[in-house]
């Protein structure tokens, strides 16, 4: 396979880096640029030069792991399933926790290249600030692997912990990448699609509290700053969701005039939310749609079927937000309650990968919450200024047992809640069915909250297109 220019440059730099006796290489490349193919080429050349014996790959999910297995097997022209005769294997990070000493002894007795996809999932500069996966890297890989190659499109963590194996400047804690290929370059080179981000807002929002006092706000930003109405309540409201779906389905229909196989992704906030959106797509917008969540059996098979099929939409809860390669995706709706910059960029990355179709538009629809507006306006920055917090090392005898870690906590805290949601619907061509008004998430409702809000004004959209030419 002919490499793209950036892939060739990165491969050459990685090999030169390793030849200079450096053991770890960190590549930052925008989602959709082709990091896996680049990594497979590095592995292939190291094997051909007799510098390694085996290759191990780790990634966040089964679906990504299977994609890596396929890419490496094709480039290395051999099995990559860990069985007798294979040159390596692709695992998930979760599988690290089940490996015994016999497995890790492979790295001590052989020259092994270890590839980490989406390395930002693994934290820890030491055992004190490592998560479970980072701890395995520190204990079993960091000093045992012949070489390690880490890949990421978002080299930071929302919990501000340092990324495993990474170097940081002192004192401003800026991560040091050995190669950077940003979205601006990828768009200019024709490697990635030029994304358009649509921020949905409303011009007149009325909020009434339990004392029957009413306040009016002219935007979602003003609403969130001036009331206890939560973002969660907006993404769960059917009228707001239906407006978003109307925009997104219209856009997909336009694209499909040129690309009949084009598809869309909706990232929902919960299984119930996803199921509800699925029903709206099918019944109200006459769209073909599928759902993939942790509750489905063999979700990776569903994703594969969608990738190779003709279904218009796939609704997901965290299953396709990162690393999953579905080039026919060109429209996406970010309706998740997770509002971190890392998650935002990973969702955007699902529509960036180019294919051979005539139309190469890429659209992301979401609400104009302050943080999402901020993220949308700085997607050209490869590494946003996000602080990294290091913990002071504590003397630990590793041989006597592993350091106990506190339970993992969600980076997505429960938002404040409201009792009842009512959106204005004058903008619609048809009235909203009564059973769709005032959807409330009981999971996040509080008995002490007694608010209602109504969107009296029309919806408005702002399109952010960072890489468009001004000429």
From TrEMBL:
<protein>
    <submittedName>
        <fullName>Diguanylate cyclase</fullName>
    </submittedName>
</protein>
<dbReference type="GO" id="GO:0003677">
    <property type="term" value="F:DNA binding"/>
</dbReference>
<dbReference type="InterPro" id="IPR027417">
    <property type="entry name" value="P-loop_NTPase"/>
</dbReference>
<dbReference type="GO" id="GO:0005524">
    <property type="term" value="F:ATP binding"/>
</dbReference>
<dbReference type="GO" id="GO:0005829">
    <property type="term" value="C:cytosol"/>
</dbReference>
<dbReference type="InterPro" id="IPR001650">
    <property type="entry name" value="Helicase_C-like"/>
</dbReference>
<feature type="domain" description="Helicase ATP-binding">
    <location>
        <begin position="2"/>
        <end position="200"/>
    </location>
</feature>
<dbReference type="Pfam" id="PF00271">
    <property type="entry name" value="Helicase_C"/>
</dbReference>
<dbReference type="InterPro" id="IPR006935">
    <property type="entry name" value="Helicase/UvrB_N"/>
</dbReference>
<dbReference type="InterPro" id="IPR014001">
    <property type="entry name" value="Helicase_ATP-bd"/>
</dbReference>
<dbReference type="InterPro" id="IPR050742">
    <property type="entry name" value="Helicase_Restrict-Modif_Enz"/>
</dbReference>
<dbReference type="GO" id="GO:0016787">
    <property type="term" value="F:hydrolase activity"/>
</dbReference>
<dbReference type="Pfam" id="PF04851">
    <property type="entry name" value="ResIII"/>
</dbReference>
